[in-house]
Write a structure and sequence with these properties.
This protein is 66% helix and 13% strand. It has eleven helices and six strands. A hairpin with a 7-residue loop joins strand 5 and strand 6.
């Protein structure tokens, strides 16, 4: 019984120590892929830690209003230089004649009463936290966008493998038919060479498509931070909301993470400007201390102690060029963020307009390519039957098969282009928000 329990514990314990999906093949949906990326992607985790670091900045501002308490303790031995003597001294007389123990300690309390600079510093810290959060949103939304894009790419590549395999089987069937007709004296050697050329081209296209799937799967696994033993399910085609172009532009202005980051960067620079401007405002601190001294050799009675309390007013009169340079630097950064935001809004609007109309064109292109693929399939079937009956030539069959293969590939490429364009528009309008990324709790 003990042996069985030990075996089971080792078996299940080994499974739990393995990376995700390294022990069994599993189908991952698109939503599950989002979850895995949020949980295991290293770039997102690193930016979560960076966001937590930024949350500590507010405590720097809070500490400007908190008291400071310090203890100073000093223990020393004072050496006394005595005149030279011809009579040697004993060790006991040396100790008592040359060393005098003394100590000193003091407790000091400093409580800020007027620290105007703490308020803009707190505002700058809060805006820095918001800016860092938006930066994390940019990283996470960009990562989730890449997850969706790679997912549709893998599915499209798998469809391309199926299409190329079908073309390969058709080319193989035509090659076998041509060989049979050549042996029967119904075809010439040129027909066989053309059929072989088409067959090897279809085989190479199939191998290339399979390698593309393997490469895409490896990139996808790296993005998610999981093992390679998984499959993808057929995702739903991405859809656009039935809205006007103006609505999409307004959504982009409101939710685009990059635009919001520039907005908070401008706020941070403005708060820094206010902070440096407050450096000429006086500060008032309350200071109290308890002091104790013991100088046994010099003080009759051995020691004394006393309290001190005072209000300290600090009035900056001149700080060289430090304050002025800091103010101008902060103002320059604020202006830079403002101009960047203006240009970013223009670029964002242009990109939204471009993607919106590109999606409309791709819809009609897909419909056209679907009809073209159906026509090419029927044409190939008809030409193949004519070739069997001796009416069409091998060149006709090869040409029809090449047209069919091209129509299949063009249709798949157009569908992938449509999916990526819709995902691009969703990213611009802030659809890939940080819903699955858990921010660290302030633990300070």
């Amino acid at each position: 019984m003990t042996l069985v329990l030990f075996f089971l514990a080792g078996f299940f314990g080994g499974i739990f120590l393995l990376p995700p999906f390294s022990y069994a093949e599993k189908v991952i949906t698109l939503n599950q892929a989002y979850v895995f990326a949020a949980k295991y992607n290293g770039t997102i985790k690193a930016n979560e830690a960076s966001f937590y670091t930024s949350t500590l900045l507010k405590w720097s501002a809070v500490s400007m209003l908190l008291p400071e308490i310090s203890l100073i303790y000093k223990d020393q031995r004072m050496h006394y230089n005595s005149p030279a003597s011809a009579v040697p001294l004993s060790s006991s007389s040396l100790t008592s004649s040359f060393f005098y123990p003394n100590y000193e300690y003091s407790f000091t309390l400093v409580q800020p009463l007027l620290q105007v600079g703490a308020f803009p510093a707190m505002g700058a810290a809060e805006n820095t936290i918001s800016s860092s959060k938006m930066s994390l949103n940019n990283i996470s939304s960009g990562t989730l966008y890449e997850v969706a894009k790679n997912y549709y790419t893998i599915f499209n590549d798998q469809g391309l493998v199926k299409a190329n395999r079908k073309t390969y089987e058709e080319a193989k069937s035509h090659l076998e038919l041509t060989k049979a007709k050549l042996q029967a004296g119904l075809a010439i050697i040129t027909d066989l060479l053309q059929a072989k050329s088409q067959f090897y081209a279809a085989k190479q296209a199939l191998i290339s498509a399979k390698n593309s799937v393997k490469s895409a799967m490896s990139d996808f696994a790296s993005l998610l931070g999981i093992g390679l033993d998984f499959k993808v399910a057929a995702p739903k085609p991405p859809k656009m909301y039935k809205a006007s172009l103006k609505v999409y532009i307004n959504l982009a202005y409101k939710n685009n993470p990059g635009l919001l980051s520039l907005k908070y960067a401008q706020k941070v620079a403005n708060n820094e400007t206010q902070y440096y401007e407050t450096q000429y405002i006086p500060t008032i601190n309350f200071q109290a201390s308890y002091n104790a001294f013991s100088y046994n050799h010099f003080i009759p009675g051995g020691s004394f102690n006393f309290w001190t309390a005072a209000g300290v007013l600090t009035m900056p009169l001149f700080q060289g060029g430090t304050r002025a340079i800091s103010i101008e630097k902060a103002r320059s950064q604020a202006n830079q963020a403002m101009y960047n935001m203006i240009q970013a809004k223009r670029n964002l609007k242009a990109q939204v307009v471009s993607d919106f109309y590109n999606i409309q064109n791709l819809k009609y292109e897909i419909l056209s390519l679907e009809q073209e693929e159906k026509f090419a399939s029927k044409n190939y079937t008809l030409v193949e039957e004519e070739y069997k009956a001796g009416i069409a030539t091998s060149v006709d069959v090869v040409t029809a098969l090449a047209s069919l293969a091209q129509a299949r590939q063009s249709l798949l490429a157009s569908k992938l282009n449509y999916a990526e364009s819709v995902l691009d528009l969703k990213r611009l309008t802030g659809s890939f928000k940080r819903k699955l990324i858990r921010l660290l709790i302030d633990k300070f």
